């Protein structure tokens, strides 16, 4: 019996020593390793699927798109702080839309539909305790899988990219509206956490002398009409407040034909070519042809 207990004790101690060593190795990788996906560029394109599909970095003289679908502003803030230390970029393009300030963003770290993915993206760059509501089970599961079992280089799931997709399907408008602005058949309100972290992004860019450009990307007119009126009104109020504070917001009023939409609220590849060329022209960015 004594030998059995002794063996159990040795096993536990060995496990603790092993896990501690793995944590140290993985933590060192996060701090010291540079992902090959990171490229030095003058402009960083950040945000969610709106900028992921709409802003083509290949048309700029020097830009990289790290946008990731479903990304809330708190995660963008963490990503921005990481990237500003790893790249030389002094200009940030960031998506701004009705859904960015909608309350469904507050569910992304707690609801099982999104929480595992958000934990996977954020554990290496963010402080989960800054999130108002999160799933402790999802968080612990992520830490165990990513930090305690084996050393690896896949700690950078928060880095997205530009998506080149030239299909078009506008049959999902109601589904998208329900996902963005309703939860369990209840209408959602604004996300104060998202608004707060948008402010944090603005303050951080100002402090680091980074030029921030908030941009609205095209959504289909039928989708726009179905956005709840309270969200639309609150969004317009926020936009006007930010403009008065001196924040640059790009509001492109050009209409896009149906064939340029990927779906209800994203433009496709052809749409992104049209949009990005106009964006470069209006904001006086350098394009590839200016080289």
Q: Descriptors for this entry?
A:
alpha/beta; Rossmann fold; five-stranded parallel beta sheet; two-stranded antiparallel sheet; 11% strand
List the SSEs and their pairings.
Blueprint: H1 2-32, E1 43-46, H2 49-54, E2 63-65, H3 73-86, E3 91-95, H4 115-122, H5 136-148, H6 173-181, E4 182-183, E5 186-187, H7 192-207, E6 211-216, H8 221-226, H9 229-244, E7 248-251, E8 261-263, E9 266-267, H10 269-283
Parallel strand pairs: 1-2, 1-3, 3-6, 6-7
Antiparallel strand pairs: 4-5, 8-9
Helix pairs in contact: 3-7, 4-5
Query: What is the CATH level 1 assignment of the domain at 37-105 and 158-290?
Result: Alpha Beta
Number of distinct beta strands: 9
Series of H and E elements: HEHEHEHHHEEHEHHEEEH
The separation of the N and C termini measures 77 Å
Question: Residue ranges: pLDDT <50 for 5 or more in a row?
Answer: none
Instruction: Summarize the main sheet.
Output: 5 strands, parallel
Average of pLDDT: 91
CATH fold-level assignment of the domain at 37-105 and 158-290: Rossmann fold
Radius of gyration: 21 Å
| Overall geometric form | globular
Helix content: 40-55%
Supply the CATH architecture of the domain at 37-105 and 158-290: 3-Layer(aba) Sandwich
Total of DSSP H or I helical runs spanning 4+ residues:
10
Helix/strand-derived class? alpha/beta
Q: Report the β-strand fraction as a percent range.
A: 5-15%
- Strand order in space, largest sheet: 2-1-3-6-7
CATH superfamily placement of the domain at 37-105 and 158-290: SGNH hydrolase
């Amino acid at each position: 019996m004594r030998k059995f207990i002794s063996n159990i004790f040795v096993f536990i101690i060995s496990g603790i020593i092993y896990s501690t060593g793995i944590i140290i190795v993985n933590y060192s990788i996060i701090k010291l390793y540079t992902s090959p996906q990171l490229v030095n560029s003058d402009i960083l394109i950040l945000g969610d699927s709106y900028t992921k599909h709409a802003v083509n970095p290949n048309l700029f003289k020097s830009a990289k798109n790290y946008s990731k679908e479903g990304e809330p502003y708190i995660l963008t803030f963490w990503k921005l702080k990481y990237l500003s230390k790893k790249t030389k970029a002094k200009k940030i393009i960031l998506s701004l839309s009705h859904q960015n300030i909608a309350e469904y963003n507050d569910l992304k770290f707690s609801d099982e539909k999104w929480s595992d993915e958000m934990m996977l993206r954020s554990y290496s760059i963010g402080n989960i305790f800054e999130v108002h509501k999160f799933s402790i089970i999802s968080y612990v599961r992520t830490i165990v899988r990513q930090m305690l079992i084996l050393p690896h280089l896949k700690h950078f799931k928060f880095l997205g990219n530009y998506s080149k997709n030239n299909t078009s399907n506008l049959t999902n408008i109601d589904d998208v509206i329900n996902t963005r602005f309703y939860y369990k058949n209840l209408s959602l309100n604004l996300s104060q956490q998202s608004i707060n972290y948008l402010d944090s992004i603005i303050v951080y860019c100002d402090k680091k002398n980074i030029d921030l450009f908030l941009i609205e990307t095209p959504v289909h007119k039928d989708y726009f009409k179905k956005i709840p009126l309270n969200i639309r009104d609150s969004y317009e109020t926020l936009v006007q407040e930010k403009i008065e504070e001196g924040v640059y917001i790009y509001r492109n009023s050009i209409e896009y034909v149906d064939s340029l939409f990927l779906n209800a609220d994203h433009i496709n590849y052809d749409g992104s070519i049209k949009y990005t060329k106009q964006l470069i022209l209006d904001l006086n960015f350098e394009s590839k042809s200016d080289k």
